[in-house]
Amino acid sequence: MTANHKKKQWLIVIALAALPLIFFIGTICIGRYSVSIEDVFKSFATAITGTDLGVEQKTYTVVMEIRFQRAIQGLLVGGCLAVSGACFQSLFRNPLVSSGMLGVSNGAGFGAALSILLFNNMVMTSLFSFGFGILAVILAYLVGKVSGGTPTITLVLGGTIIQSIFSALLSLLKYMADPYSELPAITFWLMGSLASTKSAELVFSAVPMLVGLAGMILFRWRLNVLSMGDREAKTLGLNVGLNKGIVIGFATLATAGAVCISGVIGWVGLVVPHMCRMVIGSDNKWLIPASISIGACFMVFVDTICRTISGAEIPLGIVTAIVGGPFFIYLLKKTKGKNW
Q1: I need a labelling partner for 210 at 20 to 30 A (CA). Which of 43, 149, 203, 219 fits?
Q2: Cβ contacts of residue 279 below 8 Å, gap of 6+?
Q3: Mind listing the pLDDT tens digit for each residue in 285-332?
Q4: Are 82 and 291 in contact (CB under 8 A)?
Q5: What is the predicted pLDDT for the residue at 35?
Q6: Domain containing residue 206: CATH number
């Protein structure tokens, strides 16, 4: 390895670590009530030490009780959705796969809608959403095992079937919901938002998200082998079924944790991995950390747009689709499928 190559790798590592921090501080500063960087750091110091450093109470409240938690949530959700999409794209060798391919988003949406109808409580909504998201992936795996065909293909088909079933069940719940109270709540949740999450819900969802992220980082070298194909991976001595199951499990944990507190947010898991491949290539050693970093930055950036562009907050799913759709067209034109 040449000195220039090592230098380039270190620059990539530093950039991937620094970008989320820059976006984190930036989103706390930006808003209808602007906050200086100095006041942001003073608020952090006040919260840690308990010493009054001269920050106005209003500024401290905006920084620590409103924007800080929201920024942390945006970083986690964006990183989880993006890296899960990158893992699935490499695992199934399909550039059109995203983090919700195995039905986790549809299952989570159904669970959230069911909770809104039964309890109308945000904690229960998070629990139901997470539980049904995991259940959807388990069912997709079991459906895929019914057929004796190619495991990858049957798993994708199983995911498609489960997505359709939960989508139909969700439509049924929306049909049964009260059109003046429950239906708007379900619809808004499905469009995605970081606005209403409480500390307890964030802590609950952060555990599976962090476990999923750590697992995908640890398995990124094996993911390179799995992306070669089942036959090649077996030749190299890898237990294909076991390792695929572990990667899918970690990706599902991360995605379910993200969806249960943010709602269904599309395009992040599809577009961000392609953005990263354009810059650093398809080696999962670098692609996985890059997807976490860029996905976190992308989500924080989109959330900042959603809460500042108008008086009424715009749901995240709308903006990610508006930004992601045209950008994906640009990616297709730019790469012409050469990365695959």
Answers
A1: 43
A2: 290
A3: 999 999 999 999 999 999 999 999 887 889 999 999 888 888 778 777
A4: yes
A5: 93
A6: 1.10.3470.10
End-to-end CA distance of the chain, in Å? 26
Residue 151, C-beta contacts closer than 8 angstroms, at least 6 positions apart: 144, 230, 241, 244
Q: How many beta carbons lie within 10 A of that of residue 167, not counting itself? A: 16
Provide the residue range defining the domain that includes 29: 3-335
pLDDT, mean of residues 200-224: 93
CA distances from 197 to 72, 132, 305 (A): 11, 19, 18
Name the residue with tokens 């259940």: 135
Structural domains counted in the chain: 1
Report, as an integer, the average pLDDT of 172-198.
Answer: 90
User: Which residue in 197, 229, 184 sits closest to 91, CA to CA?
Assistant: 229
d(CA 257, CA 292): 15
81 occurs within a structural domain? yes
Backbone angles phi, psi at 192, to 5 degrees: 85, 135
Q: Is residue 41 part of a domain?
A: yes
Query: Domain for residue 120, yes or no?
Result: yes
The pTM assigned to this predicted structure is 0.92
C-alpha distances out from residue 183 to 73, 100, 116, 171, 280, Å? 25, 23, 9, 11, 43
